[in-house]
Design brief:
By secondary structure, the chain is α/β, with parallel strands linked by helices. About 40% of the residues lie in helices and about 15% in strands. The chain folds into 2 domains: about 120 residues, Metal-dependent hydrolases (TIM Barrel); about 90 residues, no CATH class. The protein is built from 8 helices and 7 strands. Helix 2 packs across helix 3. The protein starts with 6 loop residues before the first strand and ends in an 18-residue tail after the last helix.
């Protein structure tokens, strides 16, 4: 018998599994479709989606899954917590409070309440009108709750440089998810940011297949980039 290490899925949105027939052609369109159907699903329906997707991952050797659960949804985070408990004998879940459409565009109070129930504080600065207020808020909340942060950040091309600010304000361990823009930054700026990441012992979570697909778009220019994994 050959034994190999099990796999870790460090970035998932399992509540969105098995709704691919809705026909979204971009990330923005997918989020819009999700926002219209998420509250029509019960806690049990979302829980079953999460469990079904997680068990498929388990079948292929993944025993640790980080799940970003939408705090703008009425039922997603509750479902994720129940699924975590249901499968705890087989899968190590980490639940992230993820504000899909922003903290201040949805309910700030719900985000705070949900964040107290999860393992990791999430974020998505680009989703709010003031991304810097968003980053300040999650940094302070994470510090208050003494929880790490995993933030969706700089997901597209060089148009945003939010990671540098997040590195400065975070007071607990920080993970930068996607950071696709690092592929497009100038060499000088990229080296500066990578140096900061290394100095602060920050995690970067790449989602290469997702980045290639979502950043391809349906028109030119097509930004098919992945964060600079080999440079960290």
């Amino acid at each position: 018998m050959i034994k190999i290490p099990d796999f870790y899925d460090m970035h998932s949105h399992l509540e969105n599994a098995f709704i691919g027939n809705e026909g979204a052609k971009s990330l923005e369109e997918a989020v819009e479709i999700w926002s219209k159907i998420r509250d029509k699903m019960t806690v049990e329906e979302i829980k079953k989606r999460i469990e079904k997707a997680a068990l498929i991952e388990l079948f292929y050797g993944t025993t640790h899954i980080r799940v970003h659960a939408d705090t703008c949804s009425k039922n997603s985070l509750k479902a994720a917590i129940l699924a975590k408990d249901e499968l705890k004998e087989h899968i190590d879940f980490q639940i992230v409070s993820f504000p899909e459409q922003g903290i201040f565009n949805c309910s700030k109070e719900d985000f705070v309440r949900y964040s107290s129930m999860v393992d990791i504080i999430g974020g998505k600065p680009e989703a709010d009108k003031d991304p810097y207020l968003h980053m300040d808020f999650i940094a302070e909340l994470a510090y208050k709750l003494q929880k790490p942060i995993d933030v969706h950040i700089d997901q597209y091309d060089e148009r945003t440089k939010h990671s540098e600010y997040m590195l400065k304000v975070a007071k607990t361990h920080l993970a930068l998810s996607h950071l696709t823009a690092l592929h497009f930054y100038s060499e000088n700026y990229a080296k500066k940011l990578i140096r900061m990441i290394k100095e602060k012992n920050i995690s970067v979570i790449s989602s290469p297949l997702t980045a290639f697909y979502l950043n391809g778009g349906n028109s030119y220019p097509m930004f098919r980039g992945v964060t600079r994994v080999k440079n960290y």
